[in-house]
UniProtKB/TrEMBL annotation:
Its cofactor is FMN. Keywords: Electron transport, Flavoprotein, FMN, Transport. It comes from Hallella colorans. Residues 4-161 form the Flavodoxin-like domain. It holds the Pfam family Flavodoxin_1. InterPro entries: Flavdoxin-like (IPR001094), Flavodoxin (IPR050619), Flavodoxin/NO_synth (IPR008254), Flavodoxin_lc (IPR010086), Flavoprotein-like_sf (IPR029039). This is Flavodoxin.
């Protein structure tokens, strides 16, 4: 049986709540990135990485040490998916951009990235996390579109192949 972990960074509790929701649907363990160890990544088969986006598209603060752990890990043979929280109205030009940093770190570590999501149905101006017309992971706006969060999670999970 494969082991799945959901690693998140959250300042306001929104990304933590979303991580808990995703984990409960997957039967996965939830880990705050501030508590993340290299051993936890090594023991997992499937890894979900989540962050809210701050400032001009940056990762949530707790990720600054955590991203280094991810980059240094050997994630070959592991499936990794990313998710992000953003505000598509107030920060429409950097919506969920932090996901791209998580995506790049996992890719650098040799992971198989899964879970790209079409930008169809989203209202935003720009995002570093959009590659070839798709978000690199699940983008969520629990501020302005909280009514879509659950349905987006439910549509995303089957695409992961965990």
């Amino acid at each position: 049986m494969s082991k799945t972990i959901v690693v998140y960074g959250s300042s306001t509790g929104t990304c933590e709540s979303i991580a808990q929701t995703i984990a409960s649907k997957l039967g996965a363990e939830v880990i705050a990135v501030s508590d993340l160890t290299a051993e936890q990544l090594a023991e997992a088969d499937n890894i979900l990485l989540g962050s809210s986006t701050w400032g001009a598209g940056e990762l949530q603060d707790d990720w600054y040490d955590g991203i280094e752990i991810v980059k240094k890990a050997d994630l070959s043979g592991k499936k990794v998916a990313v998710f992000g929280c953003g505000d598509s109205a107030s920060y429409s030009d950097t919506f969920c951009s932090a996901m791209k940093e998580l995506y790049d770190a996992a890719q650098e570590a040799g992971a198989t990235l899964v879970g790209a999501v079409s930008t169809d149905g989203y209202e935003f101006d720009d995002s570093d996390a959009v590659v070839d017309g798709h978000f690199v992971g699940l983008a969520l706006d629990d501020v302005n579109e909280d009514g879509k969060t659950e349905e987006r999670i439910d549509a995303w999970i089957p695409t992961l192949g965990f």
